[in-house]
Specification:
This protein has about 475 residues and is α/β, with parallel strands linked by helices. About 30% of the residues lie in helices and about 20% in strands. The chain is built from 17 helices and 20 strands. Helix 16 packs across helix 17. The N and C termini lie far apart (about 55 Å). This is UDP-N-acetylmuramoylalanine--D-glutamate ligase. Belongs to the MurCDEF family. Cell wall formation. Catalyzes the addition of glutamate to the nucleotide precursor UDP-N-acetylmuramoyl-L-alanine (UMA).
Length: about 475
Amino acid sequence: MKHPDMYRGEQIVVLGLAKSGVQVAKVLHEHGAVVTVNDKKEREQCPEASELESLGISVICGGHPEGLIHEGIKLVVKNPGIPYSVPPVKRALELGIEVVTEVEVAYHLCAAPIIGITGSNGKTTTTTWVGKMLEAAGMNPIVAGNIGTPLTQAAQEATADNWMVVELSSFQLKGTEDFRPKVGCLLNVAETHLDYHGDLSDYVSSKAKLFANQGVSDTAVLNWDDSYCRELVPYMKGMILPFSMTEELVQGVFVRPSYVTGTEDDLKRVIVYRDYSESEIVIAEVDSIGLPGRFNVENALAACAISIAAGADPAGLAGTIASFRGVEHRLEYVEAKGGAAYYNNSKATNAKATSMALASFRQPIVLIAGGLDRGSDYLELVPVLEGRVKALVALGQTKDKLAHVAKLAGLKTVVTVDNGDSAASVLKQAVREAAALAEEGDVVLLSPACASWDMFTSYEERGRIFKEAVHNL
């Protein structure tokens, strides 16, 4: 797309009245565009509509009217979660009208260099961690996007003295054209969101758009242990700064000694940065990391690599590595009850995320899992359930699938919780079932391996209800 100033007097349609849609509509209106906002929800479910109308922005609720998209429309900005199969998006593409997400608009407005972070798992933790590292380094970060301030609002506030640190989803990146981050990071790729993308190829290519416009002065931070990340290397135009848990890199951020033998849990490890001249510095001890779990070691490596690529001194990262205590709903310690420790990992919306969480504990685990059925068979959970999980409490659309997988893994105790009067009552019942199965020294872990939308409005709502249920045991 063009800079928003170039749409003065032109007609633009914004699809979706979520927080980002409201903000992008305001921004484009301020730049002189003739903006119409459309949302399929009924008017009484769109409290933001009146505010936009008071500014002179047209709002249409209650569906997508015929004729909304026509040849006079110059740009469509859609909420990232809206599929490309909905009629107004399909019509725009048929007419050759550009369809973008808020990320593209914000990029054209932002005076600050941008750090873009994406991946199937660990985005929010890593993005937040980078923000803390850059703050400690005096680099004036603004953390925005999926977490914090809407991206278009933050972009307008940013100056050349800031760093914009942005968590990005595949949905957002798919709708970009010119977007070019100074530093882009792909953390990992798991088979997820295929109901939206159709297949893994479209999902990976959407993630890869993070690097599509980078040049020789930009940096791509890649997980060297992830095969999908490594396959992108031939297409990179900028510098590559890898990170690895399993390999001592010629250049990059890695763990020494590496996690390769499977029997190394008690070894003393350090995080090392080796630069392009092959000189190196020990950044911190792995044992100093303030978050549990091997996957958080990987997140720490990524955060270090990103911060170094942005110009932070590697020698100054140790303090933030130790002091950072994570983000709500991501392996969040709740409290101990009856000698068992309860953890909220509601953000684990795919099997890989749950596998990583399970691998974080040595104690026996009572697992609460289940949610929206997106077609996965969950068989990849079998090896990590074996010998690690003592009992499963399953709920939601996938409860029977997960119960089947648990039995394949040899679990003798599997409980399924039927749908009750409300989603909250079902989850609270699951917590009570788990508490009855847990013994002193066990971990009770909510790590659903599924999205929440079959029962809850968000994973955040699911996590909050879980914590309330634990507190009320």
